[in-house]
Specification:
The protein has 13 helices and nine strands. With 337 residues, the chain is α+β, with helices and mostly antiparallel strands.
Length: 337
């Protein structure tokens, strides 16, 4: 478990205030493990050995072998650990670790089955575990997908565990079999608790081995992010410079962005920021706001050419919701001497 512990402790020392609460929870989890508050008892010695090896795994090939052993140990056939959604602060060098054949994976992507695969669709919708047989996808096109999968010896029964991690990335870990739904259900009822525990360990290991921080300890400043935002919405670089620069030069901002994001072009930087939703949190700037003088005037002054005006044919500031004219002090009260 050293990779997960190291990741949490690095977060704790990064001075990232936004992650402070989540990091505190993770540190409490580490303390709980050290104090053995929640000791997991495995059903078999083989699964316990696999868990121990997952905790120390530092090679992707080793992770693949441990997942294979897990699958065989519980009586299932195939496994797949896959990235459902990338988080806001990391990117993955690999997005899938599986025992599926290369022929099936090529066929899968050539036919865009990721948009039909009910397991992938369900895993992307919510966290938790589910049996394949419990999925309510009865359309003929989905049945055709399963028939194609079976032609490549990929089963339509099994269990999947979906989890969202601290940075927002979502990981799925699935185990499947070509046997009947009853067979899969029975195996999951016997080993489901252990499989879930191992799935989370495998996801921790996979993210440690295959994900990299996007910005490490550096974050784009509002000026740098606004510069990219204006460039993305307006091809005129001069206008972007005029709208966003304070006392910094265009070259200084570009160099800073390239260094922080490890990119070589503004196009890459813009794509990077867009893919991770950074523009969504950008504060409003002066050039983002459009005002209407007529609306402003209407709020500050009110014409008295209406039947219920207290003083007809006059215009006065509406200083209070009572329409009290400015010649009076609306909130002054008299006191007895």
């Amino acid at each position: 478990m050293k990779h997960w512990v190291r990741h949490v402790l690095e977060d704790a020392t990064s001075n990232n205030q936004q992650e402070e609460h989540t990091t505190q929870i993770e540190i409490e989890r580490i303390i709980g493990l050290v104090e053995q508050r929640d000791v997991h008892s495995f059903r078999t010695q083989e699964l316990e050995d696999i868990a121990d090896e997952l905790a120390e795994c530092d090679e992707l090939s080793e992770l693949s072998e441990l997942l294979r052993r897990t699958t065989v140990s519980v009586g299932l056939q195939n496994y797949a650990l896959f990235v459902i959604k990338q988080g806001t602060s990391s990117t993955f060098s690999k997005r899938l670790c599986t025992s599926y054949s290369e022929e099936w994976m090529l066929h899968y992507y050539e036919n865009s089955y990721q948009y039909l695969d009910p397991v992938s669709i369900q895993a992307s919708s919510q966290d938790g575990s589910f049996l394949y047989s419990a999925l309510k996808f009865d359309a003929p096109i989905v049945e055709s997908f399963w028939q194609e999968a079976e032609r490549f010896e990929i089963g339509r029964n099994g269990v999947c565990f979906a989890m969202t991690r601290q940075d927002g990335s979502r990981i799925g870990v699935a185990f499947s079999t070509t046997e009947s739904a009853e067979y899969a259900t029975r195996l999951v009822s016997l080993n489901g608790f252990d499989l879930e525990f191992l799935a989370y360990l495998a996801a921790d290991c996979f993210c440690y081995l295959c994900s990299e921080s996007l910005t490490l300890n550096d974050q784009l400043t509002d000026v740098e992010l606004r510069y990219l935002y204006v460039l993305a919405s307006n091809p005129e670089a001069e206008e972007a410079t005029h709208k966003t620069l304070n006392d910094q030069s265009c070259d200084t901002i570009r160099d800073s962005i390239f260094r922080k994001l490890n990119t070589r072009s503004l196009f890459q930087a813009i794509a990077f920021a867009t893919a991770n939703g950074w523009f969504n949190s950008l504060p409003y700037g002066p050039h983002d706001i459009e005002t209407d003088d007529r609306v402003t005037t209407a709020l500050l002054r009110k014409s008295i050419d209406v039947p219920d005006s207290p003083f007809s044919k006059h215009t006065y500031p509406t200083a209070s919701v009572t329409c009290m004219p400015s010649s009076l002090k609306p909130f002054t009260t008299t006191t007895r001497s």
